[in-house]
Every structure is written in C-alpha cells, then in structure tokens.
Amino acid sequence: MIRGFFLTLIVISLSVVQCLAGEESSEIIVAEINGSPVDMSRLLRLLPHKGVSDASIKEALDNIITEELAFQKARKLGLRPDQKKIKNAIVELKIELGEEGFRDYLKKEGLSEETLTLLIEKKMLIEMLYAEEVVKRVVISEEEIRTKYDEVKEMFKLPEKVVVVDVRFLQDTEESMKKAESLLAKIKVEYNGDPWRLVQDGTFIINQIRLNRVKQRELYEEAKKLNIGRLSGIIRAPDGLHIIKLVEYSPERYPSLDEMRVYLEGRLFPDALKKREKEWREELRKEAEIKIYDERLRDLER
Fold it and tell me: Quick check: is 145 in a domain?
C-alpha cells in the first residue's frame, strides 16, 4: 500500500477546518515555493481546531512545501493522471454524499466542481510521482534482511515432524496380538510393506497421522528409530496395539532465510519507506527556492 504525507494534504471530507478559512485568509500569502504562492487558507486546512503550536504549523507547512514541489516536478516530468480515475473520484464522492450533500460540501469548502477536479488531479499526480520516486526506490539490503532473520527466527522454529501410516487395533487382547502378528507378516511378505493393502474388517483401522510427541509418546519414540518406508514391530500403547510405517520425518529446524524472505521484507518495508521518503523530501528541496513569511504565521499560535 502506498502511504505517505500526501494522503492528508488534499482534504476531501466534511471535517475540514471551516471557522478559520475565510475569504481574508486566502489573500494572505504565507510562503512561496519556486514562485508559487501558498495562502493562509491552504495552511489552515491542515491545522487542528485547537492547540495550534509552532510544531503543528511547521509540520503542516512542511507537508505543503513537499506537496507543491512534488506537484511541480510531476508536471515537469510530463506525468498525466488517468482522466477516467479523476471522473470516477468525483462520481464516488457524489454517491457518498448525495447530490444535495455534494453541493453543500462544495459551498462549505468554497470550491467549484472544476476546482475540486483540479485538486483531485493534483493529488493523483503527486501519488504517481511518489510511487515512482519513493515506493519503487525503497532499498532493503541483504544485511538488513539477515539481521532481522537472526532477530526473529526463534519465533518461527519448526518442530520435529513425524508422519506414519498407523494400523491401530481396537482391542488389546491376546487374540488381537495374534492377529497383529499375522497381519504384520502379511504386510511384509504379501503386500510389499504397504499397510494400505490390508482389508479392514472392523477389528483395526488404518490412518496416516502426524504423531504428537506427548500424546502418542510410545509411537513417537518407536517411529524415530525407523528409516523412511520401514515398518515397526507391534507397539503397545494406552489406546491399543499398533503397527506403524514411517512415511516422513524432519528434525526440528529454523526456516531458512529464503523461506522467510517475503515476511522479512514486509517487516522491514515500513521503516525503509520512511527512510526513502525522508531522502526524497530532501531531494525535492535541493534546488528549490522557498520563502516563508514567518511574521504572517505568528497570529496562528493560540
């Protein structure tokens, strides 16, 4: 998901600060960015209702500067937003607010539909530039991935895995023992070691199961003595007699770095994105001519 400063810059909601952004504020220029003026009303839209401070003014103004520089660069590069997406954004807003609500919104914000369309186009241009120059240029080094892997791999340790075909006899009697011995011989001699070829007659059942070290301790310990594809002898367990065939075994292990790579990159991406965004902001300002009229900002602190 593309995240970043610009998501809050062009405000298209009914919670915009209204009491401060009057006609007079649109005539007060608080900054110039490569000759493009920023009026007070634009700044006021990004400030909270209460508790305006030097820090909040600086943050809002910094965002406006970045927004304007990004917009200017996007136009210079010849980026063009999809006109269908712009029209769809207007349509969706009308659907959300209703026709009357949409008209009230424009009136309350002091906007025409044409001006709103331009604001949406501007937002899309900035998003396009952000995607190209920030999101696509995020760098996560192999060293960072390795460090994060060593940090979190303990959380993802894979337990020992023991999978068997289990022939379980429903009773533990002398008769069941004799039958188990007979069937074990048949599996070995007649069925080439394949328990699935036995015809179940209601005295035993056959399943393939992953053994639990605690709940099936006797089977688990016997299974670990076997090689893959080999049969056990007859095992007496609390739930009856068993014959097992080991079909899969893997020791306890950590997942490899490559197995966890996508997860690790996902964990590292937010910080890497912030880092790249910070670099980008600085790059935009390198040759920009920015004038801030501090004396016009002093009355905002209240």
Answer: no
* Alpha carbons 130 and 135: distance in angstroms, whole number: 7
What does the pLDDT look like over 195-218, one tens digit per residue?
Answer: 999 999 999 999 999 999 999 999
Instruction: Decide: 126 and 70 in contact? Cβ < 8 Å.
Output: yes
Bigger pLDDT: 101 vs 4: 101
Which amino acid, residue 165?
V
Q: Within this chain, do residues 169 and 121 fall inside the same structural domain, yes or no?
A: no
219 and 288: one domain?
Answer: no
- Dihedral sign, CA of 7, 10, 14, 17? positive
Q: Which two tokens mark 140?
A: 């996560």
* CATH code, domain carrying 210: 3.10.50.40
Q: Number of helices and strands (H, E) in the chain?
A: 8, 7
Q: Using alpha carbons only, what angle is made at residue 159 by residues 262 and 152, rounded to the nearest 5 degrees?
A: 40
Give dist(CA 36, CA 259) in Å, integer: 50
Structure pTM? 0.71
Residue 8 contacts by C-beta under 8 Å, 6 or more apart in sequence? 46, 63
Number of domains composing the chain = 2
